[in-house]
Amino acid sequence: MTLWRQDWNGAVEIGCRMAGGIVLFCLLADPAFAQATTERVVVNRVSGYAISGFDPVAYFADGKASAGQDGFEAVHDGALWRFRNQGNLNAFRQHPEIYAPLFGGYDPVAVAGGRPVAGRPEIWAVVGARLMLFSSQENRAALLAGPHAWLQQASRRWPGLRAQLSP
């Protein structure tokens, strides 16, 4: 665990014990509510990891969402990524443009609608050899029913949305 995450985890624990603002702070510290919506890559604000520490290569290699492990980390596009093993880490380093989720991990249906809504690593699909994360099962189903139209609209909107997000 990096020093920043150790400091942050301590702040969460202390903040959750404070009397004033306890509900709000604890709610924000909950990983379910911690997905960033201002970064160009979705980063979990509690853990500090891109796509909440899930291994982006595992979606392709294993066909399932798998958490990354300590010791297999890389920085790409300003975010810290985790991997299950050295092979997945190496694959990502060689071709991050293939393995990193499309639209930085934001839900492509929401992006098509003009809103950067963080995708959840547990709700995913590989479409056209690209990983996509969704904020809901409904959005996943909508995209899979007609991927071309959704992705065309999202691709048009993404550059403008990305420019508004922090680097």
Counted beta strands: 4
Count of alpha/pi helices? 8
Low-confidence residue ranges: 1-37
Strand content: 15-25%
| Distance linking N and C termini | 24 Å
Structural class: alpha+beta
Helix percentage range = 40-55%
Instruction: Output the radius of gyration.
Output: 16 Å
* Whole-number count of domains: 2
Which strand order spans the largest sheet, edge to edge or round the barrel?
A: 1-2
Largest sheet: 2 strands, antiparallel
Mean pLDDT: 83
Overall spatial form? globular
Order of helices and strands: HHHEEHHHEEHH
Q: Short description, anyone?
A:
The chain has 167 residues and is α+β, with helices and mostly antiparallel strands. The protein has helices spanning 3-17, 22-29, 58-61, 86-94, 96-99, 108-112, 137-145, 147-164; strands at residues 69-76, 79-83, 120-127, 130-134. It has a two-stranded antiparallel ribbon. The protein has a two-stranded antiparallel sheet with strand order 3-4.
